[in-house]
Amino acid sequence: EQWFASRTELAGKRVLVTAGGTVERLDPVRYLTNDSSGKMGFALAEAAANRGADVTLIAARTTAPPIEGVKLVRVESAEQMLEAVLERYDSADLVIKAAAVADYQPVAQAAAKIKKSDERLVIELERTTDILKTLGERKTHQFLVGFAAETEQLAQYAMDKLARKNCDLVVANDVSRDGAGFNGDTNVVEVFGEEGLIESLPMLHKREVAERLLSRIVLRMREKAA
Ligand code: CTP
Ligand code: CA
């Protein structure tokens, strides 16, 4: 089984990658976000571009620098990410949803800075739209790859997300493990398909994880098309 890249194996394919942590504003100077660095998503976008794909990277808050040869679309909130992804979904061949999308957003966004008072402040949150689930419902020809960030029962939750969101593959990482997940340069992931666990990767640099994931994805896309 090969996992090295050919420069052309995704030539002619349109790839959408989402990355980073969404930012949900409370007022003009305050927001809710998460620990995602965006590095995994950026590495995946680069790995897809290295294989000749036409890559658009939709990035929320991130510390990663832009990638040469990859179109970068910056967004802030889950709502903006949804819009940016849907706009490009029909023409996409492969969608990789590596972003850490907020599950909740403030019900109200104050137009002016919230002033303090002596009372307790209660912030009401409502659910965001599940972007990946929406894509799964509208899937026609696209190959859909989701992520699952878990701290327990990795396989069960990953398989549940795969089915619920109609994904072709789910990349699961145990974010409570050393060397895995949100902020570091390495990750430890397992890949799930409809038949269950497909591949467990050792702790690797995120660039290497991305290369191996893309090889797996390409294999699966070919199988699906055959
Ligand atoms: N996701 C999304 N839109 C959301 C929330 C999540 O597209 N509003 C996507 C993420 O980008 C990821 C996958 O769904 O690819 C799984 O995200 P995760 O947070 O692990 O799962 P959730 O379904 O949000 O469930 P929970 O956080 O309760 O585990
Ligand atoms: Ca979530």
From TrEMBL:
Residues 15-226 are annotated as: Phosphopantothenate--cysteine ligase. Its EC number is 4.1.1.36, 6.3.2.5. CTP binds at D103, K113, F147, K161, K165. Its cofactor is FMN; Mg(2+). Pathway: Cofactor biosynthesis; coenzyme A biosynthesis; CoA from (R)-pantothenate: step 2/5; Cofactor biosynthesis; coenzyme A biosynthesis; CoA from (R)-pantothenate: step 3/5. Residues 10-218 form the DNA/pantothenate metabolism flavoprotein C-terminal domain. One of its GO terms (molecular function) is phosphopantothenate--cysteine ligase activity. In the C-terminal section; belongs to the PPC synthetase family. In the N-terminal section; belongs to the HFCD (homo-oligomeric flavin containing Cys decarboxylase) superfamily. Catalyzes two steps in the biosynthesis of coenzyme A. In the first step cysteine is conjugated to 4'-phosphopantothenate to form 4-phosphopantothenoylcysteine, in the latter compound is decarboxylated to form 4'-phosphopantotheine. This is Coenzyme A biosynthesis bifunctional protein CoaBC. It comes from Paenibacillus glycinis. The gene is coaBC. The chain holds residues 176 to 401 of 406 of the full protein.
